[in-house]
Every structure is written in structure tokens, then in C-alpha cells.
Amino acid sequence: MPTRILVDTNFLLIPVRFKVDIFTDSSDAVNDLTEFYVSSRVLNEIRLLKEKSKPSFVKELRLAETYAGQCTLIEDPGDGEVDDSLVNLASRERMVLGTTDSELRQKARKAGVKVIYLRQRNYLVLDG
User: Domain 3-127 in CATH: superfamily?
Assistant: First the structure.
């Protein structure tokens, strides 16, 4: 069974900002086939950011949406912080969490969730 990776908004921005192929490089980092998932809350977060951001960031967010389109959508009706819902969802579904947010990484690790993240701005590594 492939490793399932739940991505956050920052993870979807990696290809745009750092020219790292998250789909190929994640397979290398976990040493397995991968399947990618995005929660409905992350998509909503991207849409909200697009409404109130500068045009240059809106362009990056559109590309992030394109990458999100390559992931399987998971409906997440939860409320509260998006980060907390991602940790809960990843924990409940036994997924790896893809993020570049150090605070979110710490929350995930405390909850026993493995994390894949960008190191030295040029490669992905698995923690946990």
C-alpha cells in the first residue's frame, strides 16, 4: 500500500518557490510509492488567501491550486484551526503530513504523526 501524504498550503507552494517536485521527491523521501491528499479546509484557505493577497502571491496560489488538483480531495467539515484539523485528520487516517510550517511540524510530531518537509530549500525529508 502506498504512503499517503496529506498536504498543507505551504507544501503546495514548494514547487513554485523552490522548484522542487513534491510528487516525485516525496516518493524518494519516504522510499515508497505515494498518494497525495488535500483537505477541503486547505482549499478553502487557499481561496481566502487569494481574495486578500497581492497579485504576485495570487499567482503562486493559483499554481498551488493546480497542484492541489493532482491530489485526492478529503472533505473535512471540522471547525477551529486548519492546522489542528490537519494533524487530527493525518493522525486518524494514519497519513504522513506534508508541510513547511515548523509550528505545524511540532504539533504533528507531538501527536505521533510523521512529517515530510523541505530541508535546505532543495530536498524533502521524512521525520518520524
Answer: 5'-nuclease (3.40.50.1010)
